[in-house]
Amino acid sequence: MRYFFAIIVFLSLFFGCQKNQELTQTESKSVYMDYSNSEDQFTGGINMIPITTSKGIFKVYTKRVGNNPKIKVLLLHGGPGGTHEFFDCFDGYFPNEEIEYVYYDQLDSYYSDKPNDSTLWTTEHFVEEVEQVRKALNMDKNNFYLYGQSWGGILAMEYALKYQDNLKGLIISNMMSSAPEYGKYAEEVLGPQMPPEVLKEIKELEAKEDYANPRYTELLMTHYYSKHALRLSLEEWPKSVELAFQHLNPKIYLYMQGPSEFGMAGNATLKSWDVSDRLKTINTPTLVIGATHDTMDPKHMEWMANELPNGRFLLCPNGSHLAQYDDQKVYFKGLISFIKDVDDGTFK
């Protein structure tokens, strides 16, 4: 009887401790991934946001990941005409730091409405589109971080030049502040790194404006993209990057950027874009991310960081244009550190 009583006491203590441990774990559980009190729980964080334009109202795709009222990062993809799929790898880093972030496909990109109206393909339109998205997602100067890569970096700079009072932090990734300087870098530095016969053939095709020739794409993919866009063999490119290229809208891309990443060619509307002399007016804490093997001049990007009153430069020594993949550890360590430093007030 005495042994039976002892067993009862032991089991009571054991299960009691286990229950208290479960309560403690429940009480301390993070609400970062809790969507239960959100209207977008039904869609898993997806919101199709209506955008008012001169040509009517259209909807753009956004998908929120996580909850953090102090840190909300809006991701601006490249292209123009790219997709949020370039940023799928952010899922491997931001959630662990409890950073809230929002995927977003700009108007005329794959997951958003496609009015296919070139009068809307201007930096002015896209800046106002970002502003409408910001308001719809309740982002403000206390929590709003704007991240832009490549063309998204152009858009982020343009937004900051008009609406910096709404920003808590700004990230410019893999984009110079001058399209002409970008073209000059491609022409004078990156081009000569190719085998002479390859560069000669590329130039001959460009002189004929034969950009649709499969040979032109083949030469760039083999000798340029695999060395300066994403430094992996084409067979190793992540599926998300493949999808982003498959889903890219060629009409808006050709209209604004031109037929290749080898500088801006043809009649690209961004060909003369340059805000270099205005960077000093952006007072928002800003991180500029460059990469040694990028299509963008890393020295120019370091200059940008120094020109910005509150700029910081991050160099990815093994990275290229998509350094979030080919120099991932350096990229995300620096990006997360910047966001955390701004958030806790230690940014310098």
TrEMBL record:
Keywords: Hydrolase
Residue positions of the active site: S150, D294, H321
Pfam families named among the record's database cross-references: Abhydrolase_1
InterPro entries named among the record's database cross-references: AB_hydrolase_1, AB_hydrolase_fold, AB_hydrolase_sf, Peptidase_S33, Pro_imino_pep
Domain AB hydrolase-1: start-end pairs: 73-327
GO biological process: proteolysis
GO cellular component: membrane
Example GO molecular function: peptidase activity
Family membership noted in the UniProt record: Belongs to the peptidase S33 family.
Stated name of the protein: Proline iminopeptidase
